[in-house]
């Protein structure tokens, strides 16, 4: 299978001379829209080393190298809500073709991203996407996956999920998808709020649950992961089980504290300390995600139940420590105070 936009592996574009010698410069944009300056090479400076290669239309070496090494994927985003759109924006900016499906009509939002919106899953599957990306709420993932007419997809389609829990979608995919389909479970550990200024340095967790051995399947998976690498994400390969164990602490705990603090209705004051500002930001970051997301973190990560019990216990222990000290001080004052009064009275 040749993926759309893949340059055959035997095709190599090689600059035949160094362009470091005061080559004229030209301003243009890289594939994600950033302004860059590249040396302008004369057409003769590039040779094609493959007999069936397409003619060269652009001879600038750096962007060509980058673009030609990349696979343009056709990505179907299932669940085009808050996070689905957030991801699709970057996919589209990198030149991938985006197809979107959601129960809500997001055709305007899709159009603004240059994506095609489908209100019918059959129509979408008949487009034969290379990748089907599941970005629905955790709670609805099973129902949505079961409702997909997967028989209309190509047999080797790559299924990816971005759910914030990982063992649950892994088991779901393994249980519901035919063995021919590839499976990549991922968790971009950032969202529209924390990733609004770019994804550089932000963690991206992935587990290649089932990727076929053939070159095209390996290449397709690599091309998908490369989207995040190119944005500068910190790529972390980790099993789904290990993710859930770790994420319960860093994710469920963070969201729980944020939501508990939100119940206190904290207000900004003229004397905010840095610590208090951090709490206000935490409330804002966690409560801007849907309650359904938070609920999914609790229900579908078996480690969350134990953690919320531990948190409850820790608050109790802390309260006990504080009240015991307070009682100790009162008792001391009470007894020492009454002894002094008796002494004073006996004088
Ligand atoms: P969410 O509330 O977890 O999910 C909203 C999405 O689920 C929307 O696309 C919505 O479709 C769909 N959905 C909900 N109930 C549905 C149902 N009964 N049937 C069909 N579709 C349903 O919010 P989100 O922030 O967009 O997150 C999407 C996924 O990304 C979640 O699995 C979440 O864990 C994961 N994730 C989120 C973040 C983040 O920071 N937000 C970060 C990493 C991973 P409609 O809009 O069409 O109703």
UniProtKB/TrEMBL annotation:
<keyword id="KW-0560">Oxidoreductase</keyword>
<dbReference type="InterPro" id="IPR045011">
    <property type="entry name" value="TYRAAT1/2"/>
</dbReference>
<dbReference type="InterPro" id="IPR003099">
    <property type="entry name" value="Prephen_DH"/>
</dbReference>
<dbReference type="Pfam" id="PF03807">
    <property type="entry name" value="F420_oxidored"/>
</dbReference>
<dbReference type="InterPro" id="IPR028939">
    <property type="entry name" value="P5C_Rdtase_cat_N"/>
</dbReference>
<dbReference type="InterPro" id="IPR036291">
    <property type="entry name" value="NAD(P)-bd_dom_sf"/>
</dbReference>
<dbReference type="GO" id="GO:0033730">
    <property type="term" value="F:arogenate dehydrogenase (NADP+) activity"/>
</dbReference>
<dbReference type="GO" id="GO:0004665">
    <property type="term" value="F:prephenate dehydrogenase (NADP+) activity"/>
</dbReference>
<feature type="domain" description="Prephenate/arogenate dehydrogenase">
    <location>
        <begin position="73"/>
        <end position="347"/>
    </location>
</feature>
<dbReference type="Pfam" id="PF26213">
    <property type="entry name" value="TYRAAT1_C"/>
</dbReference>
<protein>
    <submittedName>
        <fullName>Arogenate dehydrogenase</fullName>
    </submittedName>
</protein>
<dbReference type="InterPro" id="IPR059064">
    <property type="entry name" value="TYRAAT2_C"/>
</dbReference>
<dbReference type="InterPro" id="IPR012070">
    <property type="entry name" value="Arogenate_DH_2"/>
</dbReference>
<dbReference type="InterPro" id="IPR008927">
    <property type="entry name" value="6-PGluconate_DH-like_C_sf"/>
</dbReference>
<dbReference type="GO" id="GO:0008977">
    <property type="term" value="F:prephenate dehydrogenase (NAD+) activity"/>
</dbReference>
<dbReference type="GO" id="GO:0006571">
    <property type="term" value="P:tyrosine biosynthetic process"/>
</dbReference>
């Amino acid at each position: 299978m040749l993926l759309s936009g893949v340059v055959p592996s035997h095709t190599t574009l090689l600059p035949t001379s160094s362009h470091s010698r005061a080559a004229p410069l030209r301003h243009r944009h890289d594939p994600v829209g950033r302004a860059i300056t590249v040396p302008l090479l004369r057409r003769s400076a590039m040779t094609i080393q493959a007999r069936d290669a397409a003619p060269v239309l652009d001879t600038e070496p750096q962007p060509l190298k980058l673009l030609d090494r990349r696979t343009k994927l056709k990505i179907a985003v299932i669940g085009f809500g808050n996070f689905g759109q957030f991801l699709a924006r970057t996919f589209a900016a990198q030149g991938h073709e985006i197809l979107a499906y959601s129960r809500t009509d997001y055709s305007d939002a899709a159009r603004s991203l240059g994506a095609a919106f489908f209100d019918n899953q059959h129509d979408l599957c008949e487009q034969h996407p290379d990748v089907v990306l599941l970005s629905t709420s955790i709670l609805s993932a099973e129902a949505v996956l079961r409702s997909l007419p997967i028989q209309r997809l190509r047999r080797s389609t790559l299924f990816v999920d971005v759910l914030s829990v990982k063992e649950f979608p892994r088991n779901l995919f393994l249980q519901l998808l035919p063995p021919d389909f590839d499976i990549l479970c991922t968790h971009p550990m950032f969202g529209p709020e924390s990733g609004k200024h770019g994804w550089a340095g932000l963690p991206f967790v992935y587990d290649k649950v089932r990727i076929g051995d053939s070159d095209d399947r390996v290449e397709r998976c690599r091309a998908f992961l490369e989207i995040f690498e190119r944005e500068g994400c910190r790529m972390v390969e980790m099993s789904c089980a290990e993710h859930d164990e770790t994420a319960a602490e860093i994710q469920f705990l963070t969201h729980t504290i944020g939501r508990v603090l939100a119940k206190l209705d904290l207000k900004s004051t003229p004397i905010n300390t840095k610590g208090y500002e951090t709490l206000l930001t935490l409330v804002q970051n966690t409560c801007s995600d849907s309650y359904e997301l938070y609920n999914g973190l609790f229900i579908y990560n078996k480690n969350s139940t134990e953690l919320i019990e531990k948190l409850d216990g820790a608050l109790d222990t802390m309260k006990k420590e504080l009240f015991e000290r307070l009682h100790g001080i009162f008792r001391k004052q009470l007894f020492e105070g009454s002894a002094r009064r008796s002494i004073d009275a006996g004088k």
